[in-house]
Amino acid sequence: MPPALRALLIQIAGVALVFLLARSGVLPALSALELACLQGLAAALVSIGLRSPRWWTAIHLGFMPLIVLAVGIKAPAWLWLTGFGALALVYWSSFRTQVPLFLSNRVTVHKLAAWLPADGALKLLDIGSGTGSLLIHLARLRPDWTLTGIETAPAPYALSRWLARKLPQLRLVRGDFWQHSLNGYDVVYAFLSPVPMGDLWRKAIREMQPGSWLVSNSFAVPGATPDHKVEVGDARGSILYCYRIPGRANRPSGTPRADSRAVGASPHPPEALLLPAVDR
Ligand SMILES: C[S@@+](CC[C@H](N)C(=O)[O-])C[C@H]1O[C@@H](n2cnc3c(N)ncnc32)[C@H](O)[C@@H]1O
Q1: What is the pLDDT of the chain when averaged over all its residues?
Q2: Among 122, 109, 154, which residue's Cα sits nearest to residue 270?
Q3: pTM higher than 0.70 for the full model?
Q4: Is the residue at 97 inside a domain?
Q5: How does pLDDT run across 232-276, given as a tens digit for each residue?
Q6: 194 in the same domain as 67
Q7: Which domain holds residue 44?
Q8: Does ligand 1 have an atom closer than 6 angstroms to the CB of 151?
Q9: What is the per-residue pLDDT across 88-131, written as a single tens digit (0 to 9) for each?
Q10: Are 195 and 97 a contacting pair, CB within 8 Å?
Q11: Within this chain, do residues 131 and 269 fall inside the same structural domain, yes or no?
């Protein structure tokens, strides 16, 4: 069930529980805020009972009380609409994709650039390029590389276009990366969330050339062993999980498989990128 629908049903369950308590006469006379707090508590308990991820407990606890408080402020309707519009432009389809906006930091960019081959042209695609935080810094470090970003949310995309206006080797497109072929790129970089990783791996092995690389910041592919891991060494303890696309004969079919390749020291050093994986 989509998380937004699940959250809505849990909130409705909280309302129903408070309604039943009130009908049964066990509740004293309560203010609207007190009733909302009780509803929040009921919804949070339902959420825990259904084993929702932990952060949902806080969201359910606070949702209705915050609505009651917000209504009490009596702010003009256009203010709420503006706030909603601004958030929608930034987060766009996050409620569906479960991939919010957060940005790769500079240390990650430097680590990635250092791991990739020091010379030679290279084509890199950032799927979900956000505000361009990775690509813009990478373009300055490696002006010889061809960099592409694809982003679905209008506000981060517009900002990235403006920030990259003086970087001709950087191509930014607005769109859905699931509709964009990964063929022809030496490296596909992803900084998404745990949710799409299985599907992304299947798309990568279907479309990418053998010997090219899928690099995922922070989120490993479930059931697949990375060929190499780059420890970024930032405050978050980020790890870049690097998967080399197998040759046609070795491709797993269906779900990603666990394989026996070593992790840590790379059996496929980045020089493998210079093998004739992709026409340049
Ligand atoms: C965590 S941010 C990463 C931003 C950037 N890659 C970076 O490293 O700084 C993920 C981005 O992916 C975008 N996104 C999520 N699903 C997408 C899709 N199907 N197509 C294009 N962009 C998507 C989100 O809007 C968000 O901006």
Answers
A1: 88
A2: 122
A3: yes
A4: no
A5: 999 989 999 999 999 876 665 443 333 333 333 333 444 444 433
A6: no
A7: 3-74
A8: yes
A9: 999 998 888 888 899 999 999 999 999 998 888 899 999 999 99
A10: yes
A11: yes
Q: How far apart are CA 177 and CA 42, in angstroms?
A: 39
Q: Whose CA is nearest to atom 6 of ligand 1?
A: 129
**Which whole-number Å values give the CA distances from 255 to 33, 202, 228, in the listed order?**
49, 7, 20
* CA–centroid distance, residue 216 to ligand 1 (Å): 12
- How many angstroms separate the CA atoms of 239 and 225, rounded? 14
Give residue 155's pLDDT. 97
The CA distance from 158 to 72, in Å, is 35
pLDDT in tens, 4-16: 899 999 999 999 9
| Residues 125 and 257 grouped into a single domain | yes
| Ligand 1 site, residue 152, Cβ cutoff 6 A | yes
Nearest CA to ligand 1 atom 20: 176
CA angle 107, 109, 113 (to 5 degrees): 120
Mutate which of 152, 203, 219, 238 to test ligand 1's pocket (most atoms within 8 Å of Cβ)? 152
pLDDT at 179: 97
Using a 6 Å cutoff on CB, does residue 178 contact ligand 1? yes
pLDDT band at 39 (very low <50, low <70, confident <90, very high): very high
Closest-CA residue, ligand 1 atom 17, reads: 128
| Domain final position from 34, 57, 74 | 74
Atom 2 (ligand 1) nearest CA: 101
pLDDT at residue 280, as a whole number? 30
More confident position, 262 or 163: 163
Among the listed residues 226, 251, 252, the one whose alpha carbon sits nearest the alpha carbon of residue 239:
226
Q: Which of 90, 99, 197, when mutated, tests ligand 1's pocket best, judged by the most ligand atoms within 8 Å of its CB? A: 99
156 lines ligand 1 (CB under 6 A): yes
